[in-house]
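Internal ticket #5521
Category: modeling
Description: The requester needs a full-assembly model to guide mutagenesis choices. All entity lines are attached below as received. Residue total reported by intake: 433.
Assigned to: D.W.
Attached entities:
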Amino acid sequence: MNTTEYKWITPFNIIAGIILAFGVVATVMRFGFGLSAVTNLDDNNPWGIWISFDLLCGVALAAGGYVTTSAIYLFGYKKYQAAVRPALLTAFLGYAFVVVALHFDVGRPWRLPYPLFVSQGPTSVLFEIGLCVFLYLTVLFIEFTPAAFEWLGMKKARNIVHKATIALTIMGVVLSTMHQSSLGALYLIVPSKVHPLWYSDYLPVFFFVSSTVAGLSMVIFEGSISHKFIHEKMSDEYLGIHDTFVFSFARAASFVLLAYFVIKVIGVAADNNWHYLATGYGSWFLVEMLGFVLLPCMLYGIAAREKNMALAKWTSLLAVLGIVVNRFNVSLVAFNYKLDSADRYFPSFWEIVVSVFVVTLLILTFRWISRRMAIFSEHPDFQGDH
Amino acid sequence: MEYYVLQDFLTFTKGTVYLLMGAGLVAFVIWWNFLFSREPENHKNVK
């Protein structure tokens, strides 16, 4: 890239710069003066949006990595090979910044390895999640390294890692299945705190199935954004498969959304919670189920059938929002629903700043890498080498 | 509907769940046909 032609003063860079400046201030406040200086967390609400958004949504929306690699390497959709690296990069950065965001909540970053290497808690669901995220982040890093090795000209190292693709893919699927569902299992310990419409013995199943939708939708959404802003970095091969790839994923997402809708209804029936549907929380539950599950299911189906690209892309945004709404509902809106409204949690300004700061860092890192490495194209030295 | 013993509750809820599962399976087939009915034959195959 010719750096002399690069425009630094753009609306995107200015906004990103302002967010980063606020983020640095929030980081200093958090680590300098503690949680109470920047958050509205208390004994009733020890987990806020840093868990709801950064962790629960972040992990779900990074599911595009295992969904795409398993579709291509395990289920044989090799014609969509060019879509692997963007999905892997999104997943790798998604998980990496989940860990970054977790530091803000947990504090004392130098003790991050303790739960795994010093004082394990093998009977805890949270331990299993921590272990899986640690291992899966390592797997994603290794899966991503061929792009970095190609960029650095390290052919031997790139070829060694490339040979392990199938094994890494299988590990990725296994680890994702475990921790995506375990994030839902976390809430099984608080049956009296989560509203019955969102609490279910099937919460782990709900979280895993919806993570698949999140992964499929995020790959479509991220592809459409990248298409707009880094179009010049995309190879003819990537552009050639893009449309059929989007429609295939839209069709898959539509089918999984229908399955998700059915098991959510079964969840309500299994606990005989029908009468809650006539309450205020019931109305919100119906908004989530009809507006953010059934509607995108229908729209994805129509988009795939009619080959309507714009509809598929807008539906991916709706489906991604649906996942965010669901994770917020389980962990915030329907959580502690019996508390007086004065005791309910609402995030502080600085909590929101930190979440936006982390997302901005992710976007900037994605842009930096995708402009330099062969993410949306094949490296000239490795054409056709899959 | 009121329940006095757990068995009544389970009989009712399990019955509802089984009916919903049956309806779901039928819905999957219908939706699958809807999704793929306009695909050319050569696109239906994985490879």
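Resolution: model delivered.
Comment from assignee: Chain B has two helices and no strands.
Ticket closed.
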